[in-house]
Design goal:
The structure holds 2 protein chains of 2 kinds. Chain A is α/β, with parallel strands linked by helices. Chain A has a 6-stranded mixed β-sheet with strand order 6-7-8-3-9-10, sandwiched between helices. Chain A has a 4-stranded antiparallel β-sheet with strand order 2-1-4-5, with helices on both faces. Chain A has a 3-stranded mixed β-sheet with strand order 11-12-13. The longest helix of chain B is centred in the first third of the chain and has 40 residues. Chain B contains 30 helices and no strands. The structure holds adenosine-5'-triphosphate and magnesium ion.
């Protein structure tokens, strides 16, 4: 995870209002972001992104999560320069995107970036294959090349057989598969997804998340993924940032956020999460003095949620073993005890802030 | 604002109303002593017509070479296209038309087109039809190019749109005939006038649809285009235009229909051998059979053009990009091959070249005799209907009961007792409405009682002006009061008052009738799917028909006169209220209906207490449209002998008096704009009343 930095975003500001430029006249960095944002609000400006900064590493899935209106779309659109930030830097492979000319930008979008939209953004007059090949067609690739590369991503998203359907003939899930395939057709290095599954119903959403994880295992893109669903973030994030009213409140792995929420706001999200989803075998195991023989062995990093069937099949428990050394035994009783302890800690954290 | 609806203000409002009605009554009684009240004095008028003439003359003198040059240039493509259409064997054109129709609407449309063409050929009207088609074929692309260009400009520059929109709104209220006047002056006589008029009349829908189509492309589609790496040009043409294409093509459909309608109307200036002229010239010679035969051609042409352009706009494409050139251009290749084949055949078979004389039929003789026989047979009924409408509605509104009622018309000599009875009836009715809490209805009863007694022409101009302005104030506040005052002022000063009153009388009656009939039918259509299915094709036909085709059957049966004009306006204006009412009622939210039903509403309660009130904004829109359609038809029905502003425009056109005709056109536009303002105010009110009714 700690590979090279692919995308880096520093002191990013986006302000809506009659004259956002006035706040960033002096070239020195903003000293007190919160104070400046308060001033903007009092002067009829909306700071939609306030001093946002984070790094996305190569091959990492970075999730930005927050409630509606917290500025997620604004940030991701600044990253792709669909909107121009008022202040700050966006570095892609170390080069400042905000300084690129339009021509260079078009080139970057044609080769380095792909984006998926909440409402799919498909062209209604093109069928599946034409939609997917659209970015390639814009580049002036030969029809044969277009077809070949489009066919590759079609198989990847499992749309084979629907090539000639039009968007209106497809279900939401299928349309988003087209959107995903189109964004991947140019083989981008940076993949941006703005709430890609929010318009889908829960069952399909779950399915699409699995698909997404499968695709990511194959392609290993550097990803910025936007969502307002904490459970979704949990499933797919390597690291995540939580946004509130334009600010990034906390950045960390899902476990870090759950176990050490920075404030009440974060704790409110994490409080919703059933502990079973984050506890790992190592955290719930109990070292037994006389351990039963012949139990199956699991890694301490394994999520206990996934071990339930194994636990059900082995009433005596499973051994947690790290690199050949015995850590402890995971049993139904130890699991319940760990859950109880963790929920208790969470309750205290929420109560005391 | 007068909208304060507390008891106090509505009481004082009623007092003002009564005072004004009293004033109007007094003035009406005094007009015998003071003729100045009856007729707005000529000394107080401005010779606006003369001024317009001077202005126009100046313009013509200074720009004549330019416009004549333009006219000369535009003459070429027109000549080429009409030469081409005249030269092409009919079989080639027919094959092309049927194939295009098939592409647009599959078998049914192809068959309909084929049958229509056969009709044209069999009636021997092919050359005239081709001449009209040539005008359409040249003016529509010009209008589309102009409209698309302006639409794109308006899309990119909001300032351009802010400038264009009111301009187009105003030009759409100017009656079609009035358009022809300046064009005639500037471009001179000839078929080019029809062409130019067609372009000017037809481009606004293209502008509107282009702007809407470009603007309503969802932002995510634009963003996805950007992220696909589109350059600005690619983004505009391949993403924005492509995604908004359907709407833009609907603009093409509307533009085509408007151009056709205008081209037909423009043939009134004569000099063209087209189908519109055929209808008009035969109509003038009272050759109704011939006129009807040719009129049907126009109707068929309108329907075919409408269905084809609409079909092409809404077609679901399924193009296969994987296939080769032949497969991708299958339609074009087929079309070309079929046309060449037809041409080859026509070289061998002369009958395919020029439709043989022997194959034409002329049903106009029998048609004329049949109609004659029908009119004679049905004379008692027809006359009775006509007289009833004239004596009970048209004349009272025009000159008042006190002049209309006589032994000859109503079967008795009016006495003071009759007048007293009338007064008691009106005042009693108003009083009853008032006790039921319907203050507005009470005022309306009194006003109409007064107007019907004296007739619009005998209501004095100060009286009418006062009532109109206060009505404006009550409906839409100070703004509408000022509008009303300005409109009234213009009409008085320009000397259009007398004719304007006649226009309002005729059009008002027709609109009220179409509104009552139309919204009634609309309610029925909304309540019964079967009725709706029967009504829809009739509506479609009435609406696509160029207006003056409607005149033909009406004149044939009822002859020239006000009654025919009334019928013509009603049949043209009735469609809008039907449509809007049905739409409004059918679109009342389901939950509201379910909730009301669960509360125990009967079907009629549901209709009257729930659906109609909720559909009111739409029903009001229907009224607005009915007025606009009514006014545009009013001018055209000058052809069947009316006595109002429309007739003046028509006379201006036929005598070449630009100032008088155009001034009447402006007066008509002023009336239309004012009615539009009133309708908007009422619509706003009915919407405000519903505010919060929906979640
Ligand atoms: N064009 C604009 N003009 C003015 N304010 C805007 C504009 N676009 C966004 N905003 C404001 O910026 C803030 C952030 O919006 P943004 O769309 O980034 O939120 P979001 O987190 O993506 O929300 P959602 O989950 O609803 O998509 C909101 O308060 C919004 O009202
Ligand atoms: Mg968003």
């Amino acid at each position: 995870m700690s590979g090279d930095v692919k995308l880096s975003c520093r002191n990013l500001w986006k302000v809506y209002g009659p004259d956002p430029g006035q706040y960033f006249k002096s070239s020195e960095p903003v000293s007190d972001a919160a104070q400046l944002a308060a001033r903007m609000r009092s002067e009829k400006h909306i700071p939609a992104a306030i001093n946002v900064g984070f790094d996305v590493h190569v091959g990492e899935t970075f999730v930005i999560m927050g409630l509606s209106g917290s500025g997620k779309s604004t940030v991701v659109r600044c990253l792709s320069r669909l909107i121009d930030a008022d202040h700050g830097q966006v570095l892609l492979d170390g080069e400042d995107l905000l300084a690129k000319s339009n021509r260079e930008l078009i080139d970057i979008r044609r080769h380095k970036m792909g984006m998926v939209f909440q409402n799919f953004g498909l062209l209604p007059h093109l069928n599946v294959i034409e939609n997917i090949a659209f970015p390639l067609r814009l580049q002036g690739l030969s029809p044969a090349d277009q077809r070949e590369r489009a066919a590759r991503v079609i198989d990847l998203v499992g749309l084979g057989g629907r090539e000639n359907a039009y968007p209106r003939q497809l279900s939401g899930g299928q349309q988003q598969r087209v959107g995903i395939a189109r964004s991947l057709a140019v083989e981008p290095e940076l993949w941006l997804l703005d709430e890609p599954f929010s318009a889908l119903d829960p069952l399909i959403r779950r399915q699409m998340q699995d698909e997404f994880l499968r695709i990511q295992r194959v392609l290993k893109k550097s990803i910025v993924f936007i969502t307002h669903d904490f459970l979704e973030a949990l499933r797919i994030a390597d690291r995540m940032a939580i946004m509130r009213d334009g600010r990034v409140v906390q950045i960390g792995t899902p476990e870090e956020l759950i176990l050490h929420p920075a404030d009440d706001y974060v704790a409110q999200f994490t409080g919703e999460v059933p502990r079973i989803k984050i506890l790992r075998a190592g955290q719930c195991a109990e070292a037994l003095a006389n351990r039963p023989e012949g139990l199956p062995q699991v890694d301490p990093e394994a999520r206990v949620e996934g071990l339930m069937p194994l636990l059900a099949a082995n009433p005596k428990g499973v051994d947690v073993v790290e690199g050949g050394t015995y850590v402890g035994t995971l049993t139904a009783a130890s699991l319940v005890a760990a859950l109880a302890a963790s929920e208790g800690a969470q309750a205290r954290e929420v109560a005391h802030g | 604002m007068a909208e304060g609806r507390g008891a106090g203000s509505s009481l004082s409002g009623a007092v003002v109303w009564l005072a004004l009605l009293g004033l109007a009554l007094g003035l009406a009684l005094l007009q015998v002593r003071f003729p100045v009240l009856h007729a707005y004095p000529a000394d107080w008028q401005l010779p606006l017509g003369d001024w317009l003439n001077v202005l126009m003359q100046w313009l013509v003198d200074h720009t004549k070479p330019f416009f004549r040059f333009l006219s000369w240039v535009m003459g070429f493509p027109l000549q080429w296209v009409s030469d081409l259409l005249a030269w092409l064997p009919w079989s080639v054109s027919a094959v092309a038309a049927v194939l295009i129709a098939y592409q647009a609407g599959k078998r049914p449309l192809a068959i309909f087109t084929g049958v229509s063409l056969l009709y044209v050929l069999a009636m021997g009207l092919w050359p005239d039809t081709m001449n009209s088609l040539a005008l359409v074929a040249v003016s529509v692309p010009l209008a589309i190019a102009l409209g698309f260009g302006l639409g794109v400009a308006g899309f990119f520059r909001p300032r351009v749109e802010r400038f264009l929109t009111p301009m187009m709104d105003v030009t759409q209220t100017v009656p079609a005939f009035a358009y022809l006047l300046p064009i005639l002056m500037l471009f001179g006589f000839g078929p080019v006038v029809g062409l130019i008029a067609g372009v000017i009349f037809a481009f606004p829908p293209m502008v509107k649809n282009t702007i809407v189509g470009l603007r309503e492309v969802p932002s995510e589609i634009i963003e996805s285009g950007l992220m696909s790496g589109a350059t600005p040009w690619q983004l505009f043409f391949r993403v924005r235009c492509a995604a908004g294409l359907r709407q833009i093509l609907l603009g093409v459909n509307q533009t085509t229909m408007a151009a056709l309608s205008m081209i037909i109307i423009a043939s009134i200036i004569g000099g063209s051998e087209d189908i519109g002229w055929k209808v008009l010239s035969t109509l003038r010679k009272a050759e109704f059979g011939e006129s009807l035969v040719a009129g049907i051609v126009i109707a068929l042409m309108a329907m075919v053009l409408d269905r084809i352009t609409y079909g092409l706009a809404t077609r679901e494409q399924d193009m296969d990009h994987d296939k080769g050139f032949l497969a991708r251009h299958r339609f074009g290749v087929t079309l070309l091959a079929a046309m060449i084949a037809a041409y080859g055949l026509s070289l061998v078979v002369p009958a395919l070249q020029v439709w043989p004389e022997g194959w034409t039929v002329d049903p106009s003789g029998p048609l004329n005799r049949g109609i004659e026989a029908f009119v004679i047979a049905a004379k008692p009924v027809l006359d009775a209907t006509k007289n009833f409408v004239i004596f009970a509605f048209v004349l009272p509104l025009k000159i008042g009961f006190y002049k209309v009622v006589s032994p000859f018309t109503w079967g008795f000599t009016p006495t003071l007792w009759h007048a007293a009875f009338y007064v008691v009836l009106v005042v009693g009715g108003a009083f009853y409405a008032r006790t039921r809490g319907r203050g507005g209805l009470a005022i309306a009863t009194l006003s109409f009682g007064l107007i019907l007694f004296f007739g619009l022409t005998n209501m004095t101009w100060p009286g009418l002006a006062a009532l109109l302005i206060y009505f404006g104030y009550r409906s839409g506040g100070m703004r509408l009061a000022l509008w009303s005052a300005a409109a009234m002022g213009f009409i008085l000063i320009s000397g259009s008052y007398d004719k304007a009153v006649l226009s309002v009388q005729l059009c008002g009656l027709a609109v009220v009738a179409s509104f009552i009939i139309g919204s009634g039918l609309g309610v029925l259509a909304a309540e019964s799917d079967r009725f709706s299915r029967i009504l829809r094709p009739i509506n479609d036909t009435l609406q696509t028909m160029p207006p003056f085709v409607l005149l033909i059957p009406i004149i044939m049966i009822f002859k020239i006169g006000e009654f025919s004009a009334l019928l013509a306006i009603i049949s043209y204006a009735v469609v809008a209220p039907i449509r809007y009412t049905e739409y409004g009622i059918r679109n009342v939210p389901k939950e509201v209906i379910e909730a009301s039903t669960s509360l125990g509403c009967t079907r009629s309660q549901l209709l009257w207490r729930v659906k109609i009130p909720l559909a009111m904004p739409n029903i009001m829109l229907g009224l607005n449209q009915a007025i606009m359609f009514g006014i545009s038809m009013l001018v055209i029905s000058a052809l069947v002998g009316t006595d109002d502003l429309g007739q003046i425009i028509y006379i201006g056109l036929s005598k070449g008096n630009f100032g008088i005709g155009f001034l009447a056109g402006i007066a008509m536009a002023v009336i239309a704009l004012l009615s539009d303002q009133f309708c908007r105010a009422w619509q706003k009110r009915s919407e405000a009343r519903l505010e919060g009714a929906y979640p």
